[in-house]
């Protein structure tokens, strides 16, 4: 990226960023339906970032990132990664915990790359706009699946996979057992609701800015239908947070119109509940949570109460540094409060705590929780002391990150490859866009 040369901008300092960084980030996200290829892009992007950063630092410049963005991105990564390393000391499976910590070091240079992708107005337009387009395409694809029964995008991926390897993305059992909208991620990776809900701020932000109220309403309605049909109740909460607690709709519509939107949304959910058996089943499964019976609540939460009890047991057994990152499944049998009974999720141990605070405490202990809280405090401090222009350019990434880690919800595993990678990507996009350190007049084109 060359220095800014716009008319009247002679005093504008050298812009940060790398023109190819947005392409790496968008390619990584686009390939999430094929995890192996997405990982390859991540690793290659990390290597490219190391080479590029090394060369620019040796020349004495900070061409990719401002110093504050460089520091915040790195500190937030270590708030995530250091608990992994410390948890390996006396983990249930020390070798695996050490391997997880070593492998996750690949995220650090990739986060520098992601932060550099949004370090200048051009990069932000490309990255945030590209993410909005990806979410829009995946949303339309999911709506087509809801109508026709087949995801066109997954059908194409499946055909390519069959041609290359002779077998599909999913097993026949997984195909037969799917009970919700799976979209581009496929019936063997039922995370569509969580992914769409977490990335929806990018689509709503771009829809609102480019197409005004109508664009925001259309995007919000389409995403809402997909999130409901995808069947993940955690994603319902996440998407509600996007619309209400983070006030994306209020900023554009005002409270009265936003209440009208929610009234219309309630009608849509009611219609889907009456006409779509899977949605009706999810709603009926949720209602026992209001009962006073512990077994009914556990059933309504798909066995979460049993899992959370086991997580608390692990915290009591190893409070300082936990059972080790990704060691939950090995430690679960010894802490299972209903050992020998058939679990609500089926056979086998629980794989993770399904809740961010309990995951951190059970797998990395009090030390891990303190590290995460210190990272949150630093991220909040950066937001608090940023100017209005910096907050505005970072707002989509901030929305997405906050709803993804909202503690009063159930979650996917934050120390897993997929969800950990998504969360860290949002961290980097937040830090890189908030601390881009650009003049206000240069932001007008962002």
UniProtKB/TrEMBL annotation:
Localization, UniProt: Membrane
GO molecular function (one): ligase activity
Top-level taxon: Bacteria
Transmembrane segments: 25-51, 126-147, 211-229, 236-253, 259-276, 364-383, 412-431
Predominant localisation class: membrane
InterPro entries: O-antigen_ligase-rel_domated, WaaL-like
Ranges where the O-antigen ligase-related domain occurs: 219-373
Membrane topology, record value: Multi-pass membrane protein
Alphabetic keyword roster: Ligase, Membrane, Transmembrane, Transmembrane helix
Protein name in UniProt: O-antigen ligase family protein
Organism of provenance: Lysobacter cavernae
